[in-house]
Amino acid sequence: MPRATKKSNGSAVTASPRSIDREPVSNIEWVHRSQLHANEYNPNHVAPPERELLILSILEDGWTQPIVTLSDGEIVDGFHRWFLSEDPRLMERYSGFVPVTRIHIDKVHQKMSTVRHNRARGTHAIVPMADLVTGMLKDGLKPAQIMRGLGMEDEEITRLATAQGMPELASKADFSNAWQPGEKIEGLS
Length: 189
Description:
The protein has 189 residues and is α+β, with helices and mostly antiparallel strands. 40% of the residues lie in helices and 13% in strands. The chain has two domains: 22-119, Conserved hypothetical protein from pyrococcus furiosus pfu- 392566-001, ParB domain; 126-166. The longest helix has 14 residues, at 48-61.
């Protein structure tokens, strides 16, 4: 896919972009997890509920993202996917093999790449998440299905759905009675 650019004198020059067959994603290989190792600087942390959600994602969707490594097997991105690949459910399915793509960069750029991969994933905004959950409920999914599929707690589903105008879901929630002015509170004089 050559592209034309203009020189300062106005004449056209044909420049060829990097060939797509040389892109890291074009060269994914399956390697045994034992051939990879963590880096010593990764600032990212994943809480236990999200780790379980990541395992569920791989079990239900398969490996959709390779682990990014250097040529020596040091992990640049995908530490948690690699770490969780030892889970018995994933070991049973993949026998310890993980998809890997390798990049060739220096140590400084390696660290920047790790942070870029982690930070570029973004966060989930409340209103779009509420729209998503509400849509799933309206499509007939049960709260328990959404909880499992999205790694959410029952309270999260209720709050997101009621924020988008689904009072019928809130009416099923178990709320405590509110204190009324003038009522005596047991144990207080």
